[in-house]
Amino acid sequence: MIYSGLCWDGFPRESCDFQNKSGVDSPARFWLNVQPFAGIFMYAILETGSKQYRVAAGDTLEIERLAVEAGKPFTFDRVLLVNTDGKLAVGTPTVSGATVLADVVAHKRGEKKLTFKMKRRKGYHKTIGHRQELTVVKITEIKA
Fold this sequence. Notes:
This protein is mainly beta. Helices cover 0% and strands 50% of the residues. The chain is built from no helices and eight strands.
């Protein structure tokens, strides 16, 4: 059954020619063979604030606070992996010469996390709150 221009396995209708041919000479299309990010667009994995993020051009991220004022560009040098049209460049630990350019959109604070301490039968109650300082960045370009 075909819905909205896609074959039964989620591929575009043009590549779904199982109705015209026998299945002997056509490649098998199973969900195991589908690689969602392979060869579709350029993406990179970068590390900042001891966390790793998969980014592509145009993505918006909330990361730990950077010491850059809003509206200024920022360059991430710690790029761990770059995929350019299906060609993977994996760094050891970083890809040499690869950078990710981003614009700092805004600085904000994250949601409040509450911690409650209590010692029973002692009358000791303590509530501690924490709000993480965050920076919103928009990825503009990946240079590999």
